[in-house]
Amino acid sequence: MKVPTIGESITEVTLSQWLKKDGEYVELDDPICEFESDKATLEFPAEAAGKLIHVAAEGDDLEIGALVARIDTSVSKEDGGGSNGAPGKEEKKEEKAAPAPAAKEQPAEQSYAAGHPSPAAGKILKEADIQPEEVDGSGKGGRITKEDALKAAEAKKSQPAPAEPKPEPEKKEAPKQKEQRQVSFTPKENFSRETSRKKMSRMRRTIAKRLVSAKNETAMLTTFNEVDLTEVMRLRKKYQDRFVEKYGIKLGFMSLFAKACAKVLMEMPDVNASLDGEELVYHDYADISIAISTPTGLVVPPVHNVESLGFAEIEYKIAELAEKARNGTLTLEEMQGGTFTITNGGVFGSLLSTPILNEPQSAILGMHGIKERPMVIDGEIKIRPMMYLALSYDHRVIDGSSSVTFLVKVKELLEDPVAMLMDL
Fold it and tell me: Among all residues, which ones are annotated catalytic?
């Protein structure tokens, strides 16, 4: 059993966990282990039935084609597979003479997934310092799902901390007034100077390499502006209920920002271009990557042809990609592509930032927190919901004037969303 070809750009994977024990009997197509690639977690099925022999260990980095395990096809299920507890013919005879104690008996058909957490669940349990054996899996075959892990973590948090025994105070005579003013400090006994090391996940290592590459290999600059979201918020307030009633999903800020960017990208192809060697690649479509935070790192799956989608379609697609990203079920195809990226640091409380490019794209828009600020409107001071916008761009592809013009056009569309809806 060797690491298969997973994707065109993937040359190495990490064996994140074994799903079958060493020496266990496996059937054809039984998932035996999980691989973590740069972009997704994949199950590796058995290519034959027989006794599984581990070669690689959990946490090993394996190149495509590297040996993972062997399967001894000469061993049948009746002969026994080793550590799965399936007895051979001779072992069955011994069991008649000396049956195993009841406490050690195991169910005859126990799923390989029983007691094994999914990658997302495993991370949650590790952070909460909970062993998988302490959690009952509700997934297929008894597998521990993300929801099971979250429930276990919440249950642990809700448990009251064990009370420390307090020494009984000694009976003393009433102190004098001067003694009452004295303050005694009890030194803390829980100070720690320990350190720990943890190997970076493959996704985190890939993110680190790409961020360093973006800083070193591009002429990245950032330009800023601010947008008055009064009309956008008024539009959402006026039509939100009718929008939800018709489409079953809320009209969010992201679809409005994505639509505004897509419209301007079609007008300014340089901002939508990418550099390939000494050639510029232009796109007649706007595939906008949406930055999504997950337990294992940031992913940026694209929404394709945003320029041709309606607001409800954009909202549905973003919601679908976000759900898959957080459950670790995004496919490699769903992660590929993108001509422009939008990232929203405002959901975490960011007021202003300089987003980093998502290569090979040439520009990325950073959204931030909405803050009410006093603004001068027609000679009068008024309180308006304001947001800072940041556009980071590759100066090799995009001129400074083009970057400023792009951001101003996006600002104007968002400050007059009706004109955007009417395609003016």
Answer: 395, 399
Let me know: does 268 contact 402? Beta carbons within 8 Å.
Answer: yes
CA 226: distance to chain centroid?
29
Which tokens hold the place of 117?
């957490």
Q: Which of 9, 406, 422, 13 is nearest to 202 (CA)?
A: 13
CA nearest 365: which of 304, 321, 406, 398? 406
Cβ neighbours for 63, distance < 8 A, ≥ 6 positions apart? 3, 11, 12
> Could you give the domains of the chain?
1-84 (2.40.50.100), 113-152 (4.10.320.10), 220-421 (3.30.559.10)
pLDDT string in tens for the chain (424-residue length): 998 887 766 778 888 889 898 988 998 888 999 888 776 778 889 998 999 999 998 888 888 889 999 999 888 877 665 544 444 444 444 444 444 444 444 444 445 556 777 777 777 877 777 888 777 777 766 777 777 888 887 787 777 655 555 555 555 555 555 555 666 666 666 777 888 888 887 777 878 888 898 888 889 999 999 999 999 999 999 999 999 999 999 999 999 999 999 999 999 999 999 999 889 999 999 999 999 988 777 889 999 999 999 999 999 999 999 998 888 888 878 888 899 999 999 888 899 999 999 989 999 999 999 999 999 999 999 999 999 999 999 999 999 999 999 999 999 999 999 888 877 7
Contact 359, 214 (CB under 8 A): yes
**CA-CA distance, 379 to 382, in Å (whole number)?**
9
